[in-house]
UniProtKB/TrEMBL annotation:
This is DNA mismatch repair protein MutS. Residues 761-777 form the DNA mismatch repair proteins mutS family domain. Residues 1-31 are annotated as: Disordered. InterPro entries: DNA_mismatch_repair_MutS, DNA_mismatch_repair_MutS-lik_N, DNA_mismatch_repair_MutS/MSH, DNA_mismatch_repair_MutS_C, DNA_mismatch_repair_MutS_clamp, DNA_mismatch_repair_MutS_core, DNA_mismatch_repair_MutS_N, DNA_mismatch_repair_MutS_sf. Residues 1-15 have a biased composition (Basic and acidic residues). Belongs to the DNA mismatch repair MutS family. Pfam families: MutS_I, MutS_II, MutS_III, MutS_IV, MutS_V.
């Protein structure tokens, strides 16, 4: 804050601070009764906005008081001062200058705070007319919350900004986060108008919120008592805002949505359940409250249920699709894929990546569009360079709708229409004999629907590079409006007009040194030296030259015509400004009338950017078009990990080694070397640490995500029978905040996978069971593989260090062993990163430890210990698992009595007894007998 800012601020604070010297009330809600009028006003407004930091406008500053000041000064690292007293205690205060409000607002919103912006609703001069002590009228004009911002400075250009309402109608006996509970979600991005509505099972809530990347999540305040619910929501990372349960009202939701869309009936937009309408109602109500009644721009809501690849929260985290565990953006799939050139394109790419499809026809349609651009390289390059100059139309429109837009938003509409026209003509000119793919046709149709006259009007009205703020004017092109030009000439020609006056006065008075000058206090005035002042102070000139001020060396005068001209100049400038405001309003209204067509064009531009980005990526990285069908195939040949491959290329390391992965071939040939497992749906992957197992596992999951979102994939060829659910449990993590150890997290996630996966799912599991005692871990891993094979029947990759598991492949024909190839050279292990058929013969753990730099003595001693352990170990080795006689899951369905065991002797005797036939004496004898039997059994067991 500059010194100047501080001085200005002190002036305002002294004149209008809510001082409370005489207030003696207490209580959290700070009593208003005894406060001074200005403090009473502050306290009333604060009481109406208890959950927000109150920005209280005082002149050129937004001031914060009491706890708000303490919180904000800490969050913004600004000075905390004190001003006046309340209940005998000094009032903490801090403030931000109005001209830097956006910057500070952004910092608070980023940290998850809500801000109530309270403005002065009248000029202080107006207030003074009501009496010396009258308080300037103020009220909150807007609540700024993370999910309801529209300003460019407050938004991330590349990310959606969803406000999501979560509604649960579930009766109390069922936990909100149970699999049986249904939750309705309504998500609205008021910065673009995007609206998505759907429902999820309670157990899928976190995954869904992560997919939506919800920035602010509103829930009924009563739900905050449900700890599991709160954890599930908080885990997703959005800011949680409780609101009254009454806001979740389906009737109000239906009514408000109709109003927003301007329709009388919603059936044209799909069927919404009562719960979904309640969630819609809450979102619209909250927006209404935060925007103080200004109506948001709302696109017709899209239903999100169905036709989507399900990826739960743990799998999303493990695959690092959008967020990386390390927080590094560059190591995510999104970063590896993002070649978009516009913010809207980047948002659309993220949305598609978070939500791949499951309808093969819809996926193929997207791939057709990408393929078209891959095949038309010139068109692709021209489109990308055209799109590069596209402004963010999707975000400019709602700002204009809210009355918060500036001249640059008008220019954004103008420029976006220009880009839309160029892009359409580029695509249409390229049209092949067989025509455009459906998705590109749809893009072109939406781009051409924008009213042409609007583009012309904006083009002729606006200067090329308009200023940011509407209030200062200067954005209308000269020549557009005759009145405006005349007013501007008068305003700008003031120098010339005054020079003419000056020349005339010199001639009239004969004073050559007479000057017409200007300052902020006197306005325009005539200045002569003391020596020359005399004739002007006496008649006849004194009639015309009225004395204004005498200085040490100069005397100042005014004339009636000087005052008139000054008035005309001031009114010309005001008139010019007013005319510009009228032109702005007119243009904004015309844009508002075309908002639906413009919104559709904005979405089409974003989609086009995504298709072009994916085509560019495919060509740059040598990706291929996958085949997605309804089969059960999973045949990736020559697959690569998209993120690791790019990282290796960047660091100049040797190229990534490609690998095949064939889980269920659906009739095609097995790859060379894998002929021995013709029907394997599950691959057991063994190999030393660092050999590339996790990379291999993940790359196949990522290829699936990429293919189903409609992208080319890093492989020589790929055929994927569409996957309905993708589960990935790769890499250990603990969740100590939730009181779960690494092993516990692993078991919870494995349980979720085994309970939810279907035959059509893809399951990626890495080293299940390693976090516990060897035999326990092995047994869990063993049973998990059997269950996946016999019950779930999903396509799966299972990496393990338990070599004993490889024996399963011989007994179950749905399982094949593969291993990461390594070779030894001078007692050092060399990783070849190649997947080959067969099982690893040993684990090489000690060699890897040596590579990691473990002290020589430790490595040598470990070798000795290993040697002895191996000699002493009588654990079943590969080939003789000793488990051949155990029933497999294929033979035992869950209800087959897994817990049954032979009854004990005590139980047998109890079952044979008939209590009604026993006399008291024989009953006592039986008890002695039973006790003795139990003792004997105990001894035999030990
Ligand atoms: N196909 C490949 N081509 C080239 N380099 C690879 C390949 N696969 C893996 N790598 C490199 O090897 C490193 C180790 O791979 P990864 O983490 O997948 O091994 P791992 O077998 O899962 O190890 P651990 O069992 O210790 O978790 C990776 O960081 C990568 O740089």
């Amino acid at each position: 804050m500059s010194k100047h800012d501080v001085q200005r601020r002190n002036r305002h604070v002294e004149s209008d601070a809510p001082s409370t010297e005489k207030s003696a009330n207490s209580g959290a809600g700070r009593a208003v009764a005894d406060a001074t009028p200005s403090m009473a006003q502050y306290l009333e407004i604060k009481a109406a906005n208890p959950n927000s930091l109150l920005w209280y406008r005082m002149g050129d500053f937004y001031e914060l008081f009491f706890e708000d000041a303490v919180v904000a000064s800490e969050a913004l690292s600004i000075v905390l001062t004190k001003r006046g007293k309340h209940q005998g205690q000094e009032i903490p205060m801090c403030g931000v200058p109005v001209h830097r409000a956006d910057e500070y607002l952004q910092r608070l919103i980023k940290q998850g705070y809500r801000v109530a912006v309270c403005e002065q609703l009248e000029d202080p001069a107006e207030a003074r007319k009501r009496g010396a002590k009258a308080v300037v009228k103020r009220d909150v004009v807007r609540l700024v919350t993370p999910g309801t911002v529209t300003e460019e400075a407050l938004l991330d250009a590349k990310a959606r900004n969803y406000l999501t309402a979560v509604y649960c109608e579930t009766p109390h006996e069922i936990g909100t986060t149970d699999a049986d509970a249904r939750l309705a979600l309504a998500s609205l991005d008021i910065s673009t108008g995007e609206f998505e509505v759907g429902d999820v099972a309670g157990s899928d809530l976190t995954g869904e919120l992560i997919r939506l990347a919800a920035r602010e999540i509103i829930v009924a305040d009563g739900l905050l008592g449900d700890q599991n619910f709160v954890r599930a929501v908080e885990y997703a990372g959005g800011k949680v805002t409780p609101i009254p349960a009454a806001y979740f009202n389906s009737a109000a939701g239906s009514r408000d949505l109709k109003t927003c869309l301007g329709v009388a009936d919603l059936s044209g937009f799909g069927a919404f359940s009562t719960s979904e309408l309640a969630a819609i109602g809450a979102v619209l109500k909250y927006v209404d409250l935060t925007q103080m009644g200004r109506k948001p721009l709302v696109n017709p809501p899209r239903k999100t249920a169905g036709a989507r690849l399900f990826i739960d929260a743990a799998s999303r985290a493990s695959l690092e699709l959008i967020r990386a565990a390390s927080g590094e953006k560059s190591s995510t799939l999104l970063a590896a894929m993002d070649r978009t050139v516009t913010g809207a394109g980047a948002r659309e790419l993220q949305a598609r990546l978070s939500s791949p499809l499951t309808d093969p026809a819809a996926i193929e349609a997207r791939l057709d569009a990408v393929a078209y651009l891959v095949d038309n390289r010139r068109l692709l390059d021209e489109l990308r360079s055209t799109l590069r100059s596209a402004p963010d139309l999707a975000r400019a429109l709602p700002r204009l709708g809210f009355g918060r837009g500036g001249p640059r938003d008008l220019a954004a509409v103008r420029d976006a229409i220009g880009v839309a026209r160029r892009a359409t003509s580029l695509i249409e000119m390229s049209a092949q004999p067989l025509g455009l793919p459906a998705e590109l046709k749809s893009v072109c149709e939406r781009l051409t629907q924008v009213p042409g006259d609007l583009a012309e009007a904006l083009g002729s009205a606006l200067v090329d590079d308009p200023p940011l703020l509407r209030r200062d004017g200067g954005f209308v092109r000269p020549g557009f409006n005759g009145d405006l030009d005349a007013a501007r000439t008068l305003r700008d020609d003031s120098r010339k007009v005054m020079a003419k006056h000056e020349a005339r006065y010199i001639e009239e008075t004969g004073i050559k040194t007479l000057r017409v000058r200007h300052n902020n206090i006197l306005g325009f005035f005539i200045e002569v030296t003391q020596l020359n002042a005399k004739p002007l102070l006496s008649p006849p000139l004194s009639d015309r030259f009225r004395h204004r001020q005498t200085m040490a060396n100069a005397v100042r005068f005014a004339t009636a015509e000087l005052l008139d001209t000054e008035g005309m100049i001031a009114s010309a400038s005001e008139r010019a400004l007013n005319l510009e405001q009228e032109i702005f309003t007119d243009l904004a209204e015309r844009i508002g009338a075309a908002a639906a067509a413009l919104g559709a064009a904005a979405a089409a531009l974003a989609e086009l950017d995504v298709f072009a980005a994916l085509a560019h990526l495919a060509l740059e990285q040598g990706y291929t078009r996958p085949v997605i069908d309804a089969s059960m195939a999973f045949e990736i040949r020559g697959g690569r990990h998209p993120v690791v491959q790019q990282a290796l290329a960047r660091s100049g390391a040797p190229a990534f080694i490609e690998n095949d992965c064939i889980l269920g071939k659906d009739g095609s040939e097995a790859p060379a070397g894998f002929e021995n497992a013709p029907d394997a749906r599950i691959w057991l992957v063994t190999g030393p640490n660092m050999a590339g197992k996790s990379t291999f596992l993940r790359q196949n999951a990522l290829i699936t995500v990429m293919a189903q979102m409609g992208s080319y994939v890093p492989a020589r060829s790929a055929r994927i029978g569409v996957v309905d659910r993708l589960f990935s449990r790769v890499g250990a993590s603990d969740d100590l905040a939730r009181g779960r150890s690494t092993f516990m997290v692993e078991m919870v996630e494995t349980a979720a996978i085994l309970n939810q996966a279907s035959e059509r799912s893809l399951v990626i599991l890495d080293e299940i069971g390693r976090g516990t005692a060897t035999f326990d871990g092995l047994s869990i891993a063993w049973a998990t593989v059997e269950y996946l094979h016999g019950v779930t029947k999903a396509r799966a990759l299972f990496a393990t260090h338990y070599h004993e598991l490889t024996a399963l492949a011989r007994r179950l024909n749905g399982i094949a062993n593969v291993t990461m190839d390594v070779t030894e050279w001078h007692d050092t292990i060399v990783f070849l990163h190649k997947v080959k058929a067969g099982a690893a013969d040993r684990s090489y753990g000690i060699q890897v430890a040596k590579l990691a730099g473990l002290p020589h003595a430790v490595v040598a001693r470990a070798r000795e210990v290993l040697d002895r352990l191996e000699k002493a170990d009588r654990r079943p080795r590969t080939g003789d698992d000793g488990l051949g006689d155990l029933p497999l899951f294929s033979a035992m369905r869950p209800k087959s009595g897994l817990n049954e065991r032979a009854p004990s002797a005590v139980e047998k005797m109890l079952r044979a007894m008939h209590p009604d036939d026993l006399s008291p004496k024989s009953a006592l004898e039986k008890i002695y007998e039973l006790k003795a039997l139990a003792e004997t059994e105990k001894k035999t067991q030990s």
